[in-house]
Amino acid sequence: MRRRQFVTALGATGLLGATGSAGAQSDVSASRLGGGVENVIVLIGDGMGFDPIEVTSVVHGDLSLQSMTGVGYTRTNSRSGEVTDSAAAGTALATGHEAYNGQISVRGDAEDEDPTPLLTQLELSQARGKATGLVSTTRITHATPAAYASHVPDRDMEGTIAEQYAESDVDVLMGGGRREFDDELLERMRGAGYEVLFDSADLEAASGDRLLGLFDDSHVTYTLDRDGSIPSLTEMTGAAVDRLEDEDDGFFLMVEGGRIDHAEHGNDIQTTVAETEAFDAVVDWALEYAENRDDTLVVVTSDHETGGLATGSGYGSPIEAEAIRNAEASNAAIAAAIEDGTPIREAVEGRVEVELTDEDVKRIADAKDADGPFALSNALGAVVSDHLGVAWASNVHTGPAQTVMAAGPHVDPFNGWIHHTDLSVTLAALLLFGRLPRVSDSQREFWERTIARTGPSGRLDAWLALEYVGPATDDVTEALDVDGNGVVDYRDILLILEGDAPSPSAQAGRRREAIGSVHDL
Questions:
Q1: Has residue 9 got a pLDDT over 70?
Q2: Are 68 and 405 in contact (CB under 8 A)?
Q3: What angle do CA 421, 424, 425 make, to 5 degrees?
Q4: Average model confidence (pLDDT) across the chain
Q5: Helices (H), 3-43
Q6: CA 277 → CA 64, 267, 378, 450, distances in Å?
Q7: CA 479 → CA 205, 439, 453, 485, distances in Å?
Q8: Secondary-structure breakdown of the chain: helix, strand, coil percentages, each rounded to the nearest 5
Q9: Does residue 472 come out as left (phi exceeding 0), alpha (psi in the -120 to 50 range) or beta?
Q10: pLDDT class for 34, splitting at 50, 70, 90?
């Protein structure tokens, strides 16, 4: 079996006490497991690889996220292969399980229409009495936020995801996606206690404890193109924390800078930089919030890289930082202007400080007449990026590992390679137990033999079981799969922690049963 690897920089210290077994849990060893972190803020820059961070720092100066303790590198591959999508990556980060591209917090074959739902970090937090929130610049029903509070076999089932939100008990939901909530569903949300918000004025005047903010019909308009009617990602985050921090047991909040990825799909460098800077403003806000507290963990990462951006297209200083900084529109907005009849030179040069060649104009004109919804904006991306001194590898996702940064309790410098699933179980462990003791190989082997024979029960076993999150494939993981659904997930960890795990003899011969509700804890 492959055990999950705890990120030691986020917690492991000292040695486990007298024993690490279910059958011999000493007071000393159990006492090494402290209380969990009270507040967790997970910040995900969707598609934000290393180079978008670097180029943004060239344009705007060092970023707040670059001041954070380096935790290491997190691999992004999914069950589909080396290049993940946001659904599988979000599932790995939220549940500790690898998934096939397109799946949202479920475990099953790629074409399985009724896969097993997996309890997420957000749902784990709810079960421990924490307030919870999801904030994004994508549709709130899009892949990354959806992975934390819904369970569907296909990320395109956004209507179903919206319906599941109505039953999710998430306290704050804010982003775009108004089109996914019809009048009937909005009334259901209001009936569940949500104050429904549609613009900045609504957010400023909001007085409710539960918020549903739908600030655009689809994705939230790019930073370069929006007006004051749409709140910034930082304003949404601040409003979310204002509500969530009132809960005595703390809160879990995931914030996504989701449109970094979309800009990168179009190789739109000025928008990539603007969206990354806007995301970094949230990082700055979160670090300031956590600075004088000893109860709040801030983790920053990306789910994957998009576009394969290169920091510079030549030696020396090829990046036109001032032109990128002064850009007044995204390539999507420029493309819309061209489609509406604005001459190409006027549309481009009036919004970005570049001088197009005749060849550039012809390339853009040819793309305007080409098939495909993104042909024009992609051509603009290629032309404008060339003038601004950067290069791209593709218009789709790429597969390299991503950086992880963290600040707060139990964070120490670390340089290592993990996987999204390892990062997930480490955060789950910190939510439940705080700083983690280490356990020796001999203690581990003794614990495994005991678990296979007597089954798990209690705090120490729940902590050790986190490293086995994944499919149940042998005697140990089958014993840890206490609800018998074929996987070890965070629901099993809760059942073990709360002493509700049946013994192996009680499990014997039990047929696999589907989970009725991930909220039925």
A1: no
A2: yes
A3: 90
A4: 91
A5: 27-31
A6: 10, 17, 22, 51
A7: 51, 20, 8, 12
A8: 40, 15, 40
A9: beta
A10: low
pLDDT tens, position by position, 37-63: 999 999 999 999 999 999 999 999 999
Integer Cα distance of 210 and 170 in angstroms: 8
What would the pLDDT profile of 475-511 be if each residue is shown by its tens digit? 999 999 999 999 999 999 999 999 866 655 444 444 3
Q: Check if the beta carbon of residue 384 is closer than 8 Å to that of residue 269.
A: yes
CA 171 – CA 169 distance, rounded (Å): 6
4 close to 467: Cβ distance less than 8 angstroms: yes
Beta strands in 284-334 (DSSP E): 296-301, 305-306
Q: What number of other Cβ atoms are within 10 A of residue 133's Cβ? A: 28
**SS3 of 434-493:** CCEEECCHHHHHHHHHHHHHHCCCCHHHHHHHHHHCEECCCHHHHHHCCCCCCEECHHHH
**Residue carrying structure tokens 């193109």:** 225
Give the length of the chain. Answer: 521
- Integer CA distances (angstroms), 115 to 243, 251, 446, 490, in order: 34, 29, 34, 16
157, with CB counted inside 10 A (0-12, 13-18, 19+), is: middle
Give 487's strand partners. Answer: 471
Residue 486, both tokens: 């074929």
CA distance 342 to 144: 36
Q: Would you please indicate which residues are annotated as catalytic (active-site) residues?
A: 86
Assess contact for 173 and 134: CB atoms under 8 A: yes
Number of H helices and E strands in the chain, helices first, is 22, 18
> pLDDT per residue over 250-261, tens digit each?
999 999 999 999
